Design the sequence.
C-alpha cells in the first residue's frame, strides 16, 4: 500500500469516528502545538552520573517544566504579562528549587504559561492564550499554574513546578485530572520565585505517577529514608463534601472503600468543619464583625474564603503596586476587579487575618495530630467552559476559596488526587495532613492511590453509585476513556477501553470503528478489517464515511 493510500484511509476513517476529536480540523485549531502549555522552551541538563558503586541521581530520566514565575539564569521571568517581561531583565541566577531538581538528575525542558500576574485560578490568560486542558479541551485548565498542569496532563513532561497561593497548583491539578502537591508552608525555598502573597505562597508540583510525585518530594523536602506510617484516623469533612456538584458518594464512597481495604473501618471519622472552625478559630467572629457588623450569619468556611482573598490582595499590592502604578499595565477586567474592586483592608483587618491564620494552624494540627488525614473536595465546581461567566462570579470564587483556604491559611500540606470523570468532567479529592506532615501525606498517597483509582472506576461503571449508570452510559464512559488513551497514543489501552464499551453495548457502530482506528495504529489489520465490517453491519450509514476504496486498502493490508 502506498503512503498516499494510507493517508487517505486515515482521513476517511477519521470522518467516521465521532468520538476521536483529534482527527477533526476543529480541534486542530483549538489545540495548538504542545497544547499551548509553554511560554518558552529551553533545556537545563543534569550533571553526569556518579561512578559506581554510588547510586545514580534520584530523578534520573525524568523531565520537568517550571511555571513562568521561577527564575532561570539568562531568561526573563514573565509572570504571565508581556509588560512585566518588557520591564524586567533576565534573571542573574536560577531559583535554588530548579537547580536542586537538575542536580538531582532531572532535565528542565521549559517555562510554562501562568495566569496574569499568577493571580487567578481560572487558567485563562488573554495575553498568551489559554493552555488547552487535555482532559477536557472545551473547559478551563485551572490556574494560576495552568501550563505546568497541562504539560504533565498531556505527557509533555514527567512532572512540573507551580506556585500555589490559594489554589494555584491544586485547582489546575483537579481540572486537568492529575496529582498536585502543595507542601507545608516554608518547606521548600521561595528564593528566586516571584511572590504573589508571601505568607500564603508555596512551591508545589504536579505529576501523573504517584511514585514520581514522591520522588520529587523526597528531593525537594530533603527527606531521609524512614519507614512509612499508616494513618490512625481519616477524617471526612461531611459538610464540605455536600458542596460538591457531583453525587456526594462519588467521592466519599471511593475514599471509604479504599480506607477500609488498607487500614480498616475503625480509622474513619466524620467532622463538620464549619462547626469545628467556629469553635476553634474565634478571630473569625472579629473578622465577620469588621466586614458586616455581624448582621448577616456567614459560615466559617465562607469567612475563610474572604480572609484568604483579603490577605492575598493585601500582600500582592505590597509586593507589586509600585510596578503597577509606574508601568500601568493593561489588566484583565477579572484581575483588576479582584485587586481593586474591594475596599482596602485596614491595619486592624490585616492583624485579624494573621490571628486567624495562627488559630487555624493550631486547629487543623489539633484535629489531625501526627497521624491524621483530612478528606475534603479540592474544589466544589467542575471546570467551566472557556470564557464562561461562572469563573467571574462571587459564588464560584467563594465556594472554591473556602475549600482552598484551609491549607493556604493553616500552612498544612495538601495533595489533589484524581478520581476519574463524571459527566466528562474530572473529579478529584484532596487529602490534608498537619503542617510538617509532608512525608506522611506522600506515603499515605502511595499506599492508597491504586485502590482509590480502582474504586473510582467501580463507582463510575457499576450500580454502587446511587445514581447508577445504565449499560449504555457505562459504555459511553469506556468509549471516552478510550478516546483519551487514543489521544495520548496509548493504543493498546484504547483498544481495551473500546472493547469494554463493546461488551457493555455491542450494537454501537462507533465503538467498532473507533477500535478499528486503534488497531490500524498498531498494525493489526485483520482486526481492523473485522471491526470495520462489523460497524457497517450495525449501521449502513457508516458506508458513507468508509468508502469502498478505503475498505479495499484495509483488505490489502489484512492480506
Sequence:
Amino acid at each position: 500500500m502506498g503512503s498516499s493510500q494510507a493517508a487517505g484511509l486515515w482521513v476517511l476513517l477519521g470522518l467516521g469516528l465521532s468520538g476521536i476529536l483529534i482527527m477533526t480540523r476543529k480541534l486542530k485549531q483549538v489545540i495548538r502545538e504542545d497544547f499551548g502549555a509553554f511560554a518558552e522552551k529551553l533545556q537545563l541538563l543534569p550533571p553526569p552520573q556518579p561512578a559506581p558503586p554510588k547510586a545514580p541521581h534520584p530523578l534520573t530520566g525524568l523531565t520537568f517544566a517550571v511555571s513562568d514565575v521561577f527564575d532561570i539564569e539568562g531568561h526573563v521571568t514573565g509572570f504571565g504579562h508581556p509588560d512585566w517581561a518588557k520591564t524586567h531583565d533576565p534573571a542573574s541566577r536560577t531559583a535554588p528549587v530548579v537547580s536542586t531538581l537538575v542536580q538531582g538528575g532531572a532535565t528542565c525542558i521549559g517555562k510554562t504559561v501562568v495566569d496574569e500576574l499568577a493571580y487567578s485560578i481560572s487558567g485563562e490568560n488573554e495575553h498568551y492564550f489559554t493552555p488547552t486542558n487535555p482532559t477536557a479541551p472545551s473547559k478551563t485548565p485551572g490556574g494560576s499554574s495552568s501550563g505546568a498542569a497541562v504539560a504533565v496532563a498531556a505527557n509533555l513532561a514527567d512532572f512540573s513546578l507551580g506556585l500555589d497561593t490559594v489554589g494555584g497548583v491544586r485547582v489546575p491539578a483537579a481540572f486537568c485530572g492529575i496529582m498536585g502537591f502543595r507542601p507545608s508552608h516554608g518547606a521548600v525555598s521561595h528564593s528566586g520565585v516571584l511572590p504573589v502573597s508571601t505568607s500564603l505562597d508555596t512551591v508545589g508540583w504536579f505529576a501523573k505517577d504517584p511514585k514520581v510525585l514522591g520522588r520529587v518530594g523526597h528531593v525537594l523536602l530533603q527527606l531521609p529514608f524512614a519507614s512509612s506510617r499508616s494513618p490512625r484516623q481519616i477524617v471526612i469533612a461531611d459538610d464540605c463534601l455536600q458542596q460538591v456538584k457531583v453525587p456526594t458518594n462519588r467521592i466519599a464512597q471511593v475514599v471509604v472503600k479504599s480506607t477500609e481495604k488498607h487500614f480498616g473501618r475503625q480509622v474513619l471519622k466524620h467532622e463538620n468543619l464549619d462547626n469545628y472552625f467556629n469553635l476553634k478559630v474565634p478571630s473569625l467572629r472579629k473578622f465577620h464583625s469588621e466586614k458586616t457588623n455581624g448582621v448577616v450569619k456567614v459560615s466559617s468556611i465562607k469567612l475563610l474564603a474572604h480572609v484568604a482573598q483579603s490577605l492575598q490582595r493585601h500582600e500582592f499590592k505590597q509586593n507589586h503596586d509600585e510596578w503597577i502604578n509606574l508601568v500601568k499595565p493593561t489588566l484583565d477586567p477579572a484581575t483588576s476587579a479582584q485587586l481593586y474592586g474591594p475596599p482596602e483592608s485596614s491595619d486592624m483587618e490585616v492583624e485579624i487575618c494573621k490571628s486567624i491564620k495562627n488559630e487555624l494552624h493550631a486547629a487543623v494540627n489539633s484535629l489531625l495530630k501526627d497521624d491524621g488525614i483530612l478528606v475534603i473536595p479540592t474544589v466544589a465546581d467542575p471546570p467551566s467552559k472557556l470564557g464562561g461567566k461562572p469563573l467571574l462570579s462571587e459564588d464560584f470564587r467563594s465556594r472554591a476559596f473556602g475549600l482552598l483556604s484551609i491549607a493556604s491559611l493553616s500552612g498544612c500540606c495538601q495533595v489533589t488526587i484524581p478520581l476519574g470523570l463524571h459527566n466528562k468532567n474530572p473529579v478529584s479529592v484532596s487529602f490534608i495532613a498537619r503542617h510538617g506532615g509532608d512525608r506522611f501525606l506522600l506515603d499515605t498517597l502511595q499506599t492508597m492511590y491504586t485502590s482509590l483509582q480502582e474504586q473510582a472506576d467501580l463507582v463510575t461503571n457499576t450500580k454502587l453509585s446511587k445514581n447508577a449508570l445504565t449499560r449504555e452510559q457505562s459504555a459511553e464512559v469506556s468509549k471516552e476513556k478510550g478516546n483519551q488513551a487514543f489521544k495520548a497514543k496509548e493504543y493498546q489501552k484504547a483498544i481495551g477501553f473500546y472493547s469494554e464499551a463493546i461488551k457493555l453495548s455491542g450494537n454501537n457502530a462507533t465503538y467498532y470503528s473507533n477500535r478499528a482506528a486503534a488497531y490500524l495504529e498498531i498494525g493489526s489489520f485483520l482486526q481492523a478489517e473485522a471491526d470495520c465490517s462489523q460497524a457497517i453491519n450495525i449501521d449502513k450509514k457508516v458506508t458513507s464515511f468508509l468508502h469502498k476504496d478505503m475498505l479495499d486498502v484495509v483488505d490489502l493490508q489484512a492480506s
User: Anything to note?
Assistant: Residues 300-327 form the longest helix (28 residues). Residues 1-12, 14-30, 463-469, 553-559 have pLDDT under 50 and may be disordered. The two ends are 11 Å apart (CA to CA). DSSP finds 21 helices and eleven strands in the chain.
